[in-house]
Each structure stands twice: as structure tokens, then as C-alpha cells.
Write a structure and sequence with these properties.
With 259 residues, the chain is an all-beta fold. Helix content is 2%, strand content 41%. The longest helix is centred in the first third of the chain and has 4 residues. It is elongated, with a radius of gyration of 19 Å. It starts with 6 loop residues before the first helix and ends in a 13-residue tail after the last strand.
């Protein structure tokens, strides 16, 4: 059993393509940690301040307060409703109907979706009010929150997809990810996971680490993975769509946050 190396092909690709390739991890051969900047709130390129910031293009930044009704959204996995005060940031379509709106939540979740927000507006410090729409919106980042995502609830795991979604789901022993290893099949119960993430760049597949000490390379297989999303309800994710599964038990770095 000798996994196919992607190293030669990788060297011929543009650098800005690499974060978007499935099953491709860090370019540093000694690291298995994925590059997460392309999916987190920091990808919007706006430093979080004490007030809301509305970005218009590369240079224009307006400071003030955003407001609106609940964000009603539809993803390929299901429908959801998020209170406006639960949002950490929004990336709009910028006038391109082919783009998806991205919602960044304060609890670390991210959804790429079709979004509607009633009474969506931004009031500048001077008092002027702008009517907003996710169809034309560039980027909006909310003021610093005094609340931090909880790391104490071991019954919740964070599933990240290659679409850029980050979804909180219940870590149930009744649900499992199916994988194949050099030694045979490996069912991976959700409540036993410490982390699943892309392997280092010289290997394909995912690195799995479990609570019982198991740590090995797997290829995710099987049918759609049933998951109990805390926001969307019962959903299903194709194995090929799964980039990472992260848990509060993962002590390898700052994963469990909205950054």
C-alpha cells in the first residue's frame, strides 16, 4: 500500500489554487495542520474593532452600527435562521449573482448560502443610514464581542467542508464517518474524534486522531454522512465534501474560534 504522492503536480500549480484543492494539506512536509485562513473571519481582510465596519472595495471603510432582522438562509444542506446579533461578519455577493453570501457566526460557524435579512441597514457615526442588501454587499464585520465560543462542551464538534462551511454538530456515538486504512475499514464514531484533517502535502487522504490513541491516515468513503446540525437540524454531507472535523479535545492549536 503506497499512497500516490501529489508533490510533483503540486509544484506546477499556482500558489493561490492550493488552499482550494481537496485532500491537500499544509505544504510544509512536517505539518499536518491545514491552512485555515481561506475560510475564517480573517479572510475578509478587516481587523475587528470596537464598532461595526462596512467595507466598500479595497480601501473604503465606514464605521458605525449595522442592524437588521434575523438572517434567513438556504444552504445545500438545509435551511436556517440566525438572529442578527449572532453574526460576526457577512461577505456579500458584490453584485455577482453567481457568488454565495457567507455568514460568519460568533460561535465559529460559517455558512455559504442564499441569504435574506429584513430591514438590513448601516448607520454611520455621523448619523447617515445606508440601506444594505446581501446581493450588493461587499463585506461587513461586526464589533468585537465580549462573548467567546465555548470550548467546554465536548458533545459538539465542528465540521468544515471544502465549500467553506463550518457547522456545529452533535458528537453522537450513533453517527460515524467511514474510512479505509492500509489495514482495512475503520468506522469513526463522531464522539470518539479528536480531529480529522487533510494529511501533509506528500500524502493524500485525511489524518485521523481518536480519543483511544488511534492516529492514522484514512481515505473517507461510504454514503452521505448523517449529521445533527445545531443550526440546520438533520443534514447529510458527502465524504468528498469533508475537509476537517475539529473538537474541543484538539489541543494542537487555535481551531475552536471564529478566526
Amino acid at each position: 500500500f503506497r499512497p500516490l504522492s501529489f508533490e510533483e503536480t503540486e509544484s506546477q500549480l499556482p500558489d493561490d489554487w492550493l488552499p482550494h484543492l481537496a485532500n491537500l494539506g499544509s505544504r510544509e512536509s512536517g505539518s499536518v495542520l491545514p491552512d485555515r485562513e481561506s475560510f475564517g473571519l480573517s479572510s475578509l481582510g478587516i481587523e475587528v474593532e470596537n464598532r461595526d465596519i462596512l467595507a466598500l472595495g479595497e480601501k473604503t471603510r465606514l464605521v458605525g452600527e449595522a442592524s437588521g432582522g434575523s438572517a434567513e438562509f438556504v444552504t445545500p444542506y438545509g435551511r436556517g435562521v440566525i438572529p442578527f446579533n449572532a453574526l460576526a461578519g457577512i461577505e456579500g455577493k458584490r453584485g455577482n449573482p453567481l457568488n454565495s453570501t457567507r455568514l460568519f457566526l460568533k460561535d465559529g460557524q460559517v455558512f455559504s448560502a442564499e441569504v435574506e435579512i429584513a430591514d438590513f441597514q448601516f448607520t454611520q457615526i455621523a448619523g447617515d443610514t445606508l440601506e444594505l442588501s446581501t446581493e450588493s454587499l461587499d463585506r461587513l464585520v461586526m464589533a468585537k464581542s465580549t462573548e467567546s465560543p465555548s470550548t467546554a462542551n465536548s458533545s459538539i464538534i465542528l465540521v468544515e467542508t471544502y465549500r467553506g462551511d463550518r457547522i456545529n454538530v452533535a458528537a453522537s456515538d450513533a453517527m460515524a464517518v467511514q474510512g479505509i486504512t492500509p489495514w482495512g475499514r475503520l468506522p469513526i464514531p463522531l464522539n470518539e474524534i479528536i480531529r480529522i484533517q487533510p494529511a501533509a502535502s506528500k500524502l493524500n487522504g485525511h489524518l485521523v486522531e481518536l480519543k483511544d490513541g488511534t492516529r492514522c491516515l484514512v481515505y473517507l468513503t461510504g454514503d452521505e454522512i448523517p449529521l445533527d446540525s445545531l443550526t440546520l437540524g438533520d443534514i447529510k454531507v458527502e465524504p468528498r465534501e469533508l475537509r476537517c472535523i475539529l473538537t474541543p479535545n484538539d489541543q494542537s492549536g487555535g481551531h475552536w474560534n471564529s478566526e
